[in-house]
Amino acid sequence: MSSTNGKTVNRWLIAIMGTVLQICLGTIYAWSFFQNPLMRFAGWNNQQVAMILSLALCFLGLSAAVGGTLLPKMGPRKLAVSGAILYALGWALGGLALTIKSLPLLYIGLGVIGGIGLGLGYVTPVATAAKWFPDKKGFITGMVVMGFGLGALFMSKVIAPSYQAMFTVGDSTNWPMVFFCIAGTLGVPALIAALTLRNPPAGYVPAGWTPPAAEAKANAAPDLKLKECISSTRFWFVWVVFFCNITAGLMFIGFQSPMLQNLLKLSDPNLLPAALAAAGATLIAISSLFNGIGRFFWGGLSDKIGRANTYRIILGSQILIFIALIFVKSPILFAVLVCYILLCYGGGFGTAPSYVLTVFGNKIMGVVYGCLLTAWSMAGLVGPQVAAMIKDRAADPTKAATTTYIVGAIFLGVGFLVALLLHNKPFEQKKKA
Fold it and tell me: What are phi and psi of 356, to 5 degrees?
């Protein structure tokens, strides 16, 4: 318990509500649930529909960078509320866009406006919870961002299927109404969670905890300047590692359902479209659990083995998985390997906030972490679009999948080599001559 502005605050409530907000925002990760249905609904191709996810993630990272700089001035509550409202508005505008089958409006609504809401909402609970838990940095930031990974589970197995069934007559689904209802379903709990967020009092230290000597020294040092931090090789090394891990993961997140359905068709050509779609939704749900657990698991593990070592294991092990996927024909084995990829994908997010805290300190954590999320922006443009381009240009789905695995392994290889250059020592200001 602690007191802010005369009010008693339980720091675990802050962490839990931050996780709830992340769950609402993380529903964007279920986009592959909508990939094929929207292509059929409006006659769009893979790249056109995947661009919605790309834009949402691009503006997530860009707005998170801006949000990180605004967080010290506006405080977490205002920023989180703005994010919750804009994300819900994005789905509502998406429903309007589908009503008139306007792809540009869909891009602007869910892609740009919804993406800005994602970024403002995402960076806030992570940075805020980290301030309340300096004694459990990796654990608590992993827990909070775990919520973002779990969002796809609720969307793919509960929210979207329920509204799809509600607004389907015969073989026709009223997708605009589905999107309108999703906007309300996500907006209300996200807004409630956002309203609870607040910073701890100045100088807050958990009862019975003493900061490690190196960390205490870093936090007591003169304030680091943002320009000095983001121009350092330390920042750009982790940026590249983060970008490569996300890019490889997004090549699956956007298309895991269609990929599984292609394998199922090969193993049993008699499967009906409804059965294929249900199997795809199940994979989205299960892999989202691994995405969420990975953020929690790897974030906590990084407290024990170090942030740099964690990234090396995450990227190095995935290279082997991507190569193995080239030879996999079993839908079940494919699903297992995808779940491991999502475990590592989430692990990159679970480790990043604690890496920033360890290296750059808690005073500038929110700003530097927001800038680091621009790697998510770039990966959001690259990952889904590369995978979509491969699918649209390849006549054979099997060859398209093989090419995707090879490209993903190359990204991971680059990230692994850069991860070898990372280390966990706190960043020190350059001494003036």
Answer: -60, -45
Cα 156–266–410 angle (5° rounding)? 70
Give the C-alpha separation, 392 to 402, whole Å.
14
- Rounded Cα gap, residues 66 and 49, in angstroms: 27
d(CA 274, CA 312): 40
> How far is the C-alpha of 319 from the C-alpha of 309, rounded, in Å?
16
Q: What is the distance between the alpha carbons of residues 197 and 303, in angstroms, rounded to a whole number? A: 25
pLDDT digits (tens, 9 = 90+) for 302-358: 888 988 999 999 999 999 999 999 998 899 999 999 999 999 998 998 888 888 888
pTM exceeds 0.85 for this model: no
**Cβ atoms within 10 Å, residue 226:** 16
Kindly report the backbone phi and psi dihedral angles of residue 426, in degrees, each rounded to the nearest multiple of 5, phi listed first.
Answer: -60, 145
Amino acid letter for position 3 = S
CB-count exposure of residue 216 (10 Å: 0-12, 13-18, 19+): exposed
Residue 4 φ then ψ, to 5°: -130, 125
d(CA 28, CA 358): 29
Number of H helices and E strands in the chain, helices first, is 19, 4
* Radius of gyration, CA atoms only, the chain: 21
- Listed in sequence order, the DSSP H helices in 7-136 are 11-25, 32-42, 46-74, 76-99, 103-106, 114-132
Q: Annotate 310-372 with DSSP letters as a single string.
A: HHHHHHHHHHHHHHHHTT---HHHHHHHHHHHHHHHHHHHHHHHHHHHHHH-SSSHHHHHHHH
Question: Domains in the chain and their CATH numbers?
Answer: 2-200+215-419 (1.20.1250.20)
Judge contact between 406 and 276, C-beta under 8 A: no
Structure tokens at 213: 């000597």
DSSP, collapsed to helix, strand or coil, labels residue 9 as strand
Per-residue pLDDT at 223 exceeds 90: no
